[in-house]
């Protein structure tokens, strides 16, 4: 029987878990705060920034970079905890960005659902979402389009493949990464049935974990779609990350869906950080940072 442990609770909507420098970092979207929790359960509020979404990752030098919806930019968190502009995304879309991943070469991929979620889904048959590449010099360009609600992203350890969770198409979609960071050879990496994959991470055996809000679970799949593990929860799983001492602990950020009428009610979410042993350690990006 799988053992799960609650590390912390009482948050709002949680997303974007990242293992960095011996701590689990995660974003509380409804509070507008990025937290870090160590293995003794000590929690630090690292930075406050009001943005929905509020996703982040780490550059190769360890500096956090976050996607700001209000500023339509990537912001860099300095050691003195101030935020400065890293890249301007305003020319790409009138809407704020969603998830972000930095590969081993320092390229930053950031995606965008590219529609007003408050107004409902886009017209049937349309997929306005895209993935943009931000290079180390701060330049941004779109490198993949026709994505149906792009969500979690991960890059393989060899920096050769980007995997994107397409929530509205119920699949993980892969691209080859060219030397200049461009994306080619689009393909279905895994069809996940009725699930709507949210945050994802990769492990050393070549499998992917994805979080599912509606079915309240995290699922481990191999390329091609074979399910090899599943963690069932009592609330929606928004994202997951492999980390810990040897990288083989699965951390899940989860929350209760409070309904549209209570979306802004921070306490109604009861956001919770959960951990459980995983069959293989993490690999690729996000993940392998000092």
UniProtKB/TrEMBL annotation:
Keywords: Hydrolase. Residues 15-255 form the SMP-30/Gluconolactonase/LRE-like region domain. The keyword Hydrolase applies. It holds the Pfam family SGL. It comes from the Bacteria. The keyword Ribonucleoprotein does not apply. Gene3D superfamilies: TolB, C-terminal domain. Belongs to the SMP-30/CGR1 family. This is SMP-30/gluconolactonase/LRE family protein. The lineage of its organism: Bacteria, Bacillati, Actinomycetota, Actinomycetes, Mycobacteriales.
């Amino acid at each position: 029987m799988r053992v799960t442990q609650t590390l912390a609770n009482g948050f709002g909507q949680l997303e974007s878990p990242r293992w960095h420098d011996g701590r689990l970092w995660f974003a509380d979207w409804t509070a507008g705060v990025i937290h870090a929790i160590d293995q003794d359960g000590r929690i630090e509020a690292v930075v406050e920034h009001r943005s929905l979404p509020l996703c982040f990752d780490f550059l190769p030098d360890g500096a956090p970079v976050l996607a700001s919806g209000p500023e339509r930019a990537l912001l860099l968190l300095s050691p003195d905890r101030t935020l400065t502009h890293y890249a301007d995304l305003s020319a790409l879309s009138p809407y704020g960005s969603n998830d972000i991943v930095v590969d081993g070469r320092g390229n930053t991929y950031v995606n965008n659902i590219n529609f007003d979620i408050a107004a409902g889904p886009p017209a049937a048959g349309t997929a306005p979402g895209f993935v943009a590449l931000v290079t180390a010099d701060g330049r941004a360009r779109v490198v993949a389009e026709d994505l149906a609600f792009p969500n979690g992203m991960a890059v393989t350890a060899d920096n050769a493949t980007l995997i994107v969770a397409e929530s509205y198409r119920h699949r993980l979609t892969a691209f080859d990464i060219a030397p200049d960071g461009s994306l080619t050879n689009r393909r279905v990496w895994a069809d996940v049935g009725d699930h709507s994959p949210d945050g994802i991470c990769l492990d050393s055996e070549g499998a992917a974990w994805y979080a599912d809000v509606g079915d309240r679970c995290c699922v481990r799949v191999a390329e091609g779609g074979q399910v090899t593990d599943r963690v069932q929860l009592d609330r929606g799983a928004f994202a997951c990350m492999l980390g810990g001492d040897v990288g083989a602990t699965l951390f899940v950020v989860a929350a209760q869906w409070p309904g549209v009428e209570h979306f802004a009610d921070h306490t109604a979410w009861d956001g919770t950080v959960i951990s459980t042993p995983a069959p293989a350690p993490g690999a690729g990006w996000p993940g392998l940072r000092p």
